[in-house]
Amino acid sequence: MVGNGAWTQVRTLIIAVVATLVIFGLAVIVAGIGRRTDMAHPDEPVDALAASTDDCVTCHREESPGIVEQYTYSAMAAGDVSCRDCHEVPKDYPAAVAHEGTFVLGRPSTARCQECHESQVAQFNASRHGLPAFVAYAGAQDLSADHLAMYEAIPEGSFSASKARNQLYELEGPAITKFACETCHNIGRPHEDGSVGQCQDCHMRHSFSLEQARKPETCNACHIGPDHPQWEIYQESPHGIAYATDGDNWNWEAEPGTLTAVDLPAATCSTCHISGFGTTGGSHDVGERLTWYLFAPQSSRRPDWEANMTRMQGVCISCHNENFIETFYADADAATGAVNDWVAESDEIKATLVAQDLLSPAPFDETFDFVHFNLWHHWGRTAKFGAWMQGADYVQWHGAYEVLHDLVHLEEIAAELSEGTTE
Length: 423
Ligand code: HEC
Ligand code: HEC
Ligand code: HEC
Ligand code: HEC
Ligand code: HEC
Ligand code: HEC
Ligand code: HEC
Ligand code: HEC
Fold this sequence. Notes:
Blueprint: H1 4-40, H2 55-63, H3 65-72, H4 75-78, H5 83-87, E1 97-99, E2 102-104, H6 110-114, H7 118-125, H8 131-138, H9 145-153, H10 167-172, H11 174-177, H12 181-185, H13 210-214, H14 230-236, H15 238-246, H16 269-273, H17 305-316, H18 322-355, H19 367-388, H20 392-419
Antiparallel strand pairs: 1-2
Helix pairs in contact: 2-3, 14-15, 18-19, 18-20, 19-20
Bound molecules: heme C (8 copies).
C-alpha cells in the first residue's frame, strides 16, 4: 500500500509528466503552424539592415525610423545598396549639403540612379516623362544649351503646340501653379547636376517596390481628372474590373522581364505601357507603344507609329487573338478621326471670328476661349482615351456628348458676336 503522502507525490509526478507532454505537444503543433506559414510566404521580406553598423542607418533609425524601416525590406537593401550610394556626394557636387562629417543630396537626382540603372535612365530621358513634361509648363526658353539639345533630340518629344511658357501657367501665377502644374510635370524637371527627372514619382522612396510601381494607382497621381482621366477610364474597363476584383491574388513581384498572363491575368497601365510582356520588351520610354498624339487638339500620327503599334499589340496578343486586336485598332482609329472632325469644326468657328476681328486671339480672356478649350482639352481627349482604353461612359457622357453640347454653345456665342450682342 502506498501511503497518502507518497500518493500525492506520485500524483504530482503524473500531472507534471502529462503537463510536460501537453506543452511539448502544443509546442510541436505551434512550430508546425509556424512552418506552414513560412511555406505559404517563401518570400518573407528580409530585414537587411538589422545588423548594420553604418552610422547613416544607426542614427536615422532613431531620427527618422520610417525611412530606415521602408528601406531595410527593399530589394536594393538586400542587394547591398547603401544610403550612401544614393545620397553621399563630393563636397563640390551641385546641391550638396554638409551633413555629419560628409556631404549628401537631400533629394538624390537621376544621375545617382544612372550609375547602376543606365538603360532605365536612358529610356526615361527619351520619353515625354522627361524634359517634354517640364517644357509643357515652363517653356524651353530657360533650358541650358545641353538640355535644349537633349530636348530636341527626343524623337517624339518636341511635338508641342508651343515651346513657350504655357499661358495658363502664366495666368494662374506661382502661388497656384507650384501646387498644380508643377506637382505633376516636375516628373521631367532638370536638376542642378544636369540630370533630368524624378524616378521617385513612380518608385516610392525608400521601398522602391515592383508591386507598388506596377499597380495602376501609382499612375493616378497624375493621370486623372477631366483632361486625362486614364485612371477613371481604367476603373471602368474590363481590365480595371479584373484588377479591382482579383488583383489581390496576382503575382506582383515577378522578376522584370518574366511577367506573363499567369502572373497578371488582365492588363494594367504598366503592362500596356512599361512592363516587358508577351513579345514586347520592357521600357521606361512610355511613348514607344503609341500610334497617335492623342493629347493634341487634333491627333496626328507619331513618327514611328507602325513599329510602336507592333510593340503595343505584342502585349495584347498574350491575352487576345490577333483578329480581335486588329479590328479593335481599326475601330479606335475611326473614333479618333471622328473626334478630330469635331475639333476641326470648332477650330474653324474660332478662326472665322478671329479673322473678322470679333474675337481676340489672346487666350483665356473671353467665354469663347474657355468653351473652345473644354471642347478639345477635356471632352475631345477624354472621348479618344475612353475608346482606346475601354471606358464607354467616358467616350459617351464625359466625351462625345459634351463635345456636341460645346459645339452648339460655340455657334451660339459666334452668332451673338456677329450680331454685336455680346462683348
Ligand atoms: C548622428 C545622426 C545622423 C547621422 C550619423 C546621419 N544623419 Fe542624416 N540626418 C540626421 C538628422 C537629425 C536629420 C534631420 C536634419 C534636419 O531636420 O534639419 C538628417 C537629415 C538627413 C537628410 C535630409 C537632408 C536634407 O537636406 O533634406 C538626408 C538625405 C540624410 N540625413 C542622409 C544621411 C546619410 C546618407 C547619412 C550617412 C552618410 C546620414 N544622414 C548620417 C541625423 C543623422
Ligand atoms: C536608391 C536610392 C536611395 C537610397 C538607397 C536611400 N535613399 Fe534616401 N532618398 C532617396 C530619394 C530619391 C529621396 C527624395 C525623395 C523625395 O523626392 O521626396 C530620398 C530622401 C531622403 C531623405 C529626405 C526625405 C524626407 O522626407 O525628409 C532622407 C532623410 C533620406 N532619404 C535618408 C536615407 C537613409 C537614412 C537611407 C538609408 C537607410 C536612404 N535614404 C537610402 C533615395 C535613396
Ligand atoms: C549602387 C547601385 C544602385 C543605385 C545607385 C541605385 N540602384 Fe536600384 N537597384 C540596384 C540593385 C543592385 C538592385 C537589385 C537588383 C535585383 O534584385 O535584381 C536594384 C533594384 C532596383 C529596383 C527594383 C526593385 C525590385 O524590387 O526588384 C528599382 C525600382 C530601383 N532599383 C530603382 C532605383 C532608383 C529609382 C534609384 C535612384 C534613386 C536607384 N535604384 C539607385 C542598384 C542600385
Ligand atoms: C494632375 C496632374 C497634372 C496637372 C496638375 C497638370 N498636368 Fe498637364 N498633363 C498631365 C498629364 C498626365 C498629361 C499627359 C496627357 C496625355 O498624354 O494624354 C498632361 C499634358 C499636358 C500638356 C500636353 C502635352 C505637351 O507637352 O504639350 C500640356 C501643354 C500641359 N499638360 C500643361 C499643363 C499646365 C500648363 C498645367 C498647369 C496650368 C498642367 N499641365 C497641370 C498632368 C497634369
Ligand atoms: C512612370 C512611372 C515610372 C517612372 C517615372 C520610373 N519607373 Fe522604373 N519602373 C516602373 C514600373 C511600372 C516598373 C516595373 C516594370 C516591370 O513590370 O517589369 C519599373 C521598374 C524599374 C526597375 C526594375 C527593372 C526594370 O527595368 O523593370 C528599375 C531598376 C527602375 N524601374 C528604375 C527606374 C529609374 C532609375 C527611374 C528614373 C530614371 C525610373 N525607374 C522611373 C515605373 C516607373
Ligand atoms: C508625377 C506625375 C506622373 C506620374 C506618376 C505618371 N505620369 Fe505619365 N505623364 C505625366 C505627364 C506630365 C505626361 C505628359 C508629358 C507631356 O507630354 O508633356 C505623361 C505622359 C504619359 C504618357 C504619354 C507619353 C507620350 O509619349 O505622349 C504615357 C503613356 C504615360 N504618361 C504613362 C504613365 C504610366 C503607365 C504611369 C504609371 C506607371 C505614369 N504615366 C505615371 C505625368 C506622370
Ligand atoms: C489594355 C492596355 C492599356 C491599359 C490597361 C492602359 N492603357 Fe493607356 N493606352 C493604351 C492604348 C492602346 C493607347 C493608345 C495608343 C495609340 O496611340 O496607339 C493608350 C493611350 C494612353 C495615353 C495617351 C497618350 C497620348 O498620346 O496622349 C496615356 C497617357 C495612357 N494611355 C496612360 C495610361 C494609364 C495611366 C493607364 C492606367 C490608369 C493606362 N494607360 C491603361 C493601352 C492601355
Ligand atoms: C494580361 C491579359 C490581357 C492583356 C495583355 C490585354 N487584355 Fe484586354 N482583356 C483581358 C481580359 C481578362 C478581359 C476581360 C474579358 C471579359 O470581360 O470576359 C479583356 C477585355 C478587353 C476588351 C473588351 C472585350 C469585350 O468584349 O468587351 C478589349 C477591347 C480589350 N481587352 C482590348 C485589349 C487591348 C487593345 C490590349 C492591348 C493594348 C489588351 N486588351 C491587353 C486581358 C488582357
